Amino acid sequence: MNMKKLATAIATVTVALASPAAFAAWTLNMTPGITAISRRVYDLHMIMYWWCVAIAIFVFGWMIYSLVRFRKSQGAVPDTKLVHNTKAEIIWTVLPVLILIIMAVPATRTLIETDDASKSELTIRITGYQWKWGYQYVDSGVEVLSTLDHASNAARQLGSGIDPTTVPDYLLNVDHPLVVPAGVKVRLLISAQDVIHSWWVPALAIKKDAIPGFVNEAWFKIDTDKTGLYRGQCAELCGRDHGFMPIVIDVRSKADFEAWLKTQQAMQRPADPAAAAVATAGDAAAPTG
After folding, report:
1. Which CATH class is domain 122-268?
2. pLDDT, position 108
3. Domain locations in the chain?
4. CA 238, 239, 243, 249: dihedral to nearest 10 degrees?
5. pTM, two decimal places
6. Nearest by Cα to 185 from 107, 279, 114
C-alpha cells in the first residue's frame, strides 16, 4: 500500500513538473534575452556548460571504469610505488590550458563589448532607493519613480486576506515602468541614494550594483521586434523590504517612445515663470468685493 502511495505521489509530481506552468516557474537556465549581447552571453554560457558536461562525463566515466575494472575481487593488486607517466602529465596539463584559452577568448571579447557604451543615443540615470527605483531621462527633463504596484503591495501585507496567486505578476509589477525604445542604444548610469542595491534584468543580461556615491555604467540595444514588458528585481539584499522593489521595462517602438516622452515632458514641465508672475500681478490688482 505504501509503495502504491509513493508511486502515485511520484506520478503526480512528474505530471506537475511537465506542465508549461511549472516550466515557467522553474526557470533554472539563463534566458537568451532580447539583445545581441544577451544572446551572445547565453551562447557562451551554453558552450561552457557543455564543456563542463563533457569533462564530467570523461572524468567520472574513467573513475567508474577504474573502480569496476580494477576491483579487488578481480585480483587487482594496488601499486605501492608512485607511478610517473610523462605523456599523461603533459596531456592533463596542456588540454585544460587549451580549453581555458578556447573559452576565455570569446568571453573576453564579449566582456569588452559590454563595457563599450559609446555612441549611445539615449542616457538614463537609474537611482536605487529603499525600496524603489528612480529613472531620469537625461537632457529631457523627464523623471519617473517606480514602486511596487498597489495590488501586490496590498496582498503582501500580513492579515490582508488576499490570495497572492490571484494577483497578476505578484511582486513583479510596478506602478510606473521604465519605458525605453527598441532599436536604440541606451546608456545606463546606475547609482543609489542610501544603501547598495543591484539592478538586474535577465532579458538584458545586465546586473549592475547601484552604490551610493559611485556610478556604474551599462548599455543595451533591444531588437526592434522585441517590444513588450520584461521584468527584473533588485539582486542585492538592501533591507527588510528588499523583495518588494521589482523592475519592469516597457519596450516600445521609436515612434511610441517619442510620443510617450513628449507627453511626460508636457506633464512634468514646470509652469512658465513669466506667465505665473503676470497671473499673480493680475490677481493682486483685481478689486476685492
Report:
1. mainly beta
2. 93
3. 12-75+83-114, 122-268
4. -40
5. 0.77
6. 114
Residue for grid cell 521604465:
178
Residue count of the chain, please give it: 289
Q: Can you spell out the DSSP letters for 131-178?
A: TEEEEEETTTTEEEEE-B-HHHHHHHSTT----GGGSTTTTS-BSS-E
| Farthest-apart Cα atoms in the chain, separation | 118
Distance between CA 258 and CA 180 in Å, rounded? 10
Nearest to residue 200, comparing CAs of 143, 141, 242, 139? 242
Write down the H helix ranges in the chain. 2-18, 20-25, 36-69, 86-114, 150-156, 254-268, 273-285
Q: What pLDDT is stored for residue 11 in this prediction?
A: 57
Q: What is the pLDDT of residues 51-68, one digit of tens each?
A: 999 999 999 999 999 889
User: In sequence order, what are the residues at sequence separation of 6 or more whose Cβ sits closer than 8 angstroms to the Cβ of residue 195?
Assistant: 130, 212, 238, 239
* Alpha carbon distance 187, 135 (integer Å): 12
> What's the half-sphere exposure (Cβ side, CA atoms, 13 Å) at 25?
10
Match domain 12-75+83-114 to its CATH number in 3.40.50, 1.10.10, 1.10.287, 3.10.450: 1.10.287
Q: What is the mean pLDDT of residues 91-98?
A: 90
CB 30 within 8 A of CB 219: no
CB 185 within 8 A of CB 166: no
DSSP letter for 35, please: B
Q: Among the listed ranges 4-18, 37-51, 188-202, 274-288, which one has the minimum average pLDDT value?
A: 274-288
